[in-house]
Fold this protein.
Amino acid sequence: MYTYQDLLLVGENDADRIDFIMKAIMQHQNTKDYKTAVIADEYDRQLNTTMVNYQKTITDITGRIVPDYYSPNYKMCSNFYNRLTNQRNQYSLSNGVSWTGTMVEVPEGTEGATKKIVWDKYPTVTDRTIKYHYEYQLSVPTGIEEKLGKDFDTQLQALCKAGIDGGVSFGFINANDRKEDENETYHLEVFKITEFVPLYDEENGSLRAGIRWVRISPEKPLRATLFEEDGYTEYIWFKRKENGVEREFGQVYHDKRAYKQIITKSDIDDEEKIYNGENYPTFPIIPFFANKHKQSAIVGMREHIDAYDMIKNEYANTMDDALLYWVLTGAGGFDKAEANKFIYELKQSRVAAIEGDQSIQPVTVNPETAGRETLLDRIERDIYKDYSALDIDQIRAGAVTATQIKAAYESLDMAANEYEYQIIQFLDRLLKVIGIEDTPTFTRSMLINVSEMIQILLQSATALTDEYVTTKILELLGDGDKAEYIINQKVAEELQKVGIAIQQKENEQAENEDETEETEQEENEDEEIG
C-alpha cells in the first residue's frame, strides 16, 4: 500500500503526481479491504454474492459437467446483513447526537446550576477534621449544532454505516464558503473506502493525506482530488486513442487551494469573488473505525448468510422438483453415459423414448422438511447471536415486563457501548479540527413497556422533581418535544390556583373584617342606648 511518505518522495511535479495518483487508485482497488467492502455493499443491497453467482450443474451425455438450465435453481437472497447493520447503527444514532455544552462555574443560586462538593481536606488518623466547600456549575451551549449544520446527524449516520460496511470510512469536515464578516460553519462529507485512498504516516499511523476518486461510468472521465494538509488539488483523466490504442491522459483540473474559502466583493464592479482563506490546524479528513478490529461486519457473517441462503434455496428446489426418480424396466444394459443421456433428454424435452420391451415409471419421494426447518432456525439464531443483535421475535409476542425487555437488549447494549466509543473518538478528533470543546451523548432507541415505565415513574415521583417526571412521561408517550410547553402550562395552572386561593382568603378576611365592624358597631349602639 502507498503511504504519506511515498507521496512526499513524488515531489511537486504535476506529471509525477498524476502518475502517482493513478497507481495509488489501482493498487487500492486490489487490496483486501477494498474487495471486502465491495462484497459488503452487495450484501447490503440484498445481492448476496455467493447466491447470485451460484449455478447448478449436471452431467451431460458425454460425462461433462455443464450448467443445469432445466431443473429449478432458485436464488432467493436473505436480507440479514442490511437489517442487522442498520439496527446496530440506528440504535445509537436514530435520535441524533446531543451535546452537553461547556461547564462553567457560576454563583450560588444561579438557575439550572449543578451543585458539586469539593473536598478541601480529608480526615486522617491524627486529624479527624473534614473541610469542604460547594461549587456551582452551569452547562453553557457551545453553538455546535449551528456550526455543524442541520444535516450533520444524517451525515453521521451515513458515515458510521459506511464504516460498518468497509471497516473504516472517512469524514471530511468541510468549511462552507463565507463572507469575511460571517461566522464559520461546516458540513460533513462522507468518503467510503471504495472511493478513497488513505495515505497514512509510516511513523505514527495517522492519516496525513488521501485521494478521493469518482467515475460515473467506464466510458466517462475519471475525477480525483488529492487532499493534503495545506490544501487540495483536483485532477481529471480523459480517454483518447493513441496509435490505435485507447489510453487515459491526466491533467490538473484545479490548482491547489485552501480548505476555507472567503467571499468578497470587488470595489470596482461590486462583483462577488472567492479567494483562498486558510487551512485547518490539522488534516480535516478523519477516519472512523466501526470496531476495534477495523474490519467490515461482513467478515464472519457472510458464511452464515450463505449457508442460510443455500439451504433455503435448495429446500425450494427440492420442493419444486419433488425428488422425482425414474425406474426403467428392461434397460439393465444401460451404462452411466446412457442413463445420463436419458435424464438429459427427459429434462430437456419432457418426453421419454423407450424400446418396445421397456417400461418407465416415475417414483416421487416426499422431501424431508423438519430437519431443514430446524437447521434454518438454528442458523438464524446464530446470526443474531454472533452479531449481538436484537431478535425482535423474542419480545414481540405477548405482554412482557420491562425486566424481560431489558434482558433481551443486553447483547445489543454491550455492542452499542463499544460502537459508541468509536463514534466518540471520531467526534473528539472532529471537534479538535474546528476548535470546539464539547461532549457528545446518545439516546438509544429502545422498545419499552410504556405503562409499566409510567407506573415506575409515578411511584418514584416523591424522590424526583415534577419537571423530570413530566418530561420522562411525555418522552415515553412520544411527546417529548412538548415537555417545555406542558410544564409551563402546569406552572401557570398552579399559579392560577394559588392566585384563586389567595383571592378567596382575602375575600374571607374582608368578610370577617366587615362582620367584626358590624358587631362592634352594634355593641357601641347598645352601649349608647343603655
